[in-house]
Specification:
With 368 residues, this protein is mainly alpha-helical. 71% of the residues lie in helices and 4% in strands.
Length: 368
């Protein structure tokens, strides 16, 4: 007596997709953004009754509506891009540096310390040079600590760098109270507001142009460094396989320490630009969450510094535009966050369809 069992395949299954050409990947991303905008439009009409076209027009106006808004957008773009570039070498090495927020704060703290302690006591040009060196050293050393522990003791770098963010925040909080001006205010206020000692110079009439130029130079440097230098090659090999890297003679521990030192130093530069060139003060919110947003920027751009310009611009645009619609239409700021979140959800979701495909069942097999 034989039994006849019919085994039915699942309706669909997920399969790894072959690497897509870059242009096809970006078509998928653009389609996902368009779908997200349609979803946001429907949600806007259902929840607020507002015309979604007017809402989107307001978002564009909020980001590009005036020369000042454009420069503010470029400033925000430059800062986010700078921090994204900083974490990219570590991420490409598969060292998950979640501590950029703290590294930026420590770089900014070093900058503020130079401005407060040395402002008016040494020539301004020399002060700015000291600020640059101090911020890079501070950010680099802050990143070096988890790198050494990872290289020597194989600690979990994700938790280590994440926890160091909170240490950095508390250090800034302590010195904020120590330097508070006026006493009892709980904040430092504008540093050297009278003589502008340590303020980074402006270029012509454009307050943020220097920041944009510096970050552009870092972008070019990072692209060349990662793509064409020996160090960039070693980072890629270590990221692919540490065993392979050791087999071909690469000193993995040295690469980890060197790469994190670079990552922290660039975060320190971001702190310098924020404190010395933009805010002229330091608070626990100086980094403003950019250290975490930079993770998304770097990942979405596939660790490509040039593509990071586009991903940074997209995120900054939605941040500026979403804030504008909350103001113009009198909506709760949470609504603008909802729109931004939906768009980001679709962008991140598009990565699934770039890397995987759904294969549907065509027929079923019978097993006797």
């Amino acid at each position: 007596m034989s039994e006849k069992n019919s085994v039915r395949e699942p309706l669909f299954h997920v399969a790894k997709r072959d690497t897509l050409p870059v242009w096809k990947s970006w078509i998928i991303r653009i389609i996902s953004i368009l779908i997200a905008l349609v979803v946001c439009a429907v949600l806007t009409m259902l929840l607020t009754g507002e015309n979604p076209i007017s809402v989107y027009a307001t978002m564009i106006k909020g980001a590009f509506g005036s020369e000042r808004r454009i420069w503010n957008l470029l400033q925000s773009l430059a800062m986010l891009l700078c921090i994204s570039l900083a974490v990219t070498p570590a991420f490409k090495m598969r060292f998950w540096n979640i501590g950029a927020e703290g590294q930026v704060l420590i770089g900014g703290l070093a900058t503020a310390a130079c401005m407060i302690c040395l402002g008016g006591k040494i020539p301004n040009a020399l002060l700015i040079i000291v600020m640059i060196i101090s911020s890079m050293l501070a950010g680099g050393i802050w990143a070096l600590i988890p790198a050494v522990f990872k290289a020597k003791f194989n600690t979990n770098e994700t938790l280590f760098t994440l926890m160091m963010n909170y240490v950095g925040i508390q250090l800034v909080s302590y010195f904020t109270m120590y330097w508070e001006n006026p006493k009892g205010s709980g904040k430092i206020g504008i540093i050297n507001s009278a003589d502008h000692a340590g303020w980074l110079p402006t270029i012509g009439e454009y307050e943020y142009l220097l920041n944009v130029i510096v970050v552009f130079a870092i972008t070019v440097f990072m692209y060349i460094y990662l793509k064409y230098s020996k160090h960039g090659y070693e980072i890629s090999v270590v990221g692919e396989s540490e065993n392979t890297a050791r087999y071909i003679g690469i000193n993995v521990k040295k690469v980890i320490i060197r790469t994190m030192l670079l990552s922290g130093a660039v975060c320190g530069i971001a702190g310098l630009l924020l404190v010395g060139g933009t805010n002229h003060t330091i608070t626990t919110t100086t980094a403003n969450g950019r250290g975490f947003t930079a993770i998304m920027v770097s990942w979405l751009a596939k660790f490509n510094p040039i593509l990071m310009i586009l991903t940074s611009l997209l995120l900054v645009f939605f941040e500026k535009g979403a804030g504008e619609i909350a103001t113009v239409f009198g909506l709760n700021e949470s609504f603008s966050d909802i729109i931004t979140g939906i768009v980001l959800f679709f962008i991140i979701g598009s990565e699934f369809f770039i890397n995987y495909q759904l294969k549907f069942r065509h027929s079923h097999k019978e097993v006797k």
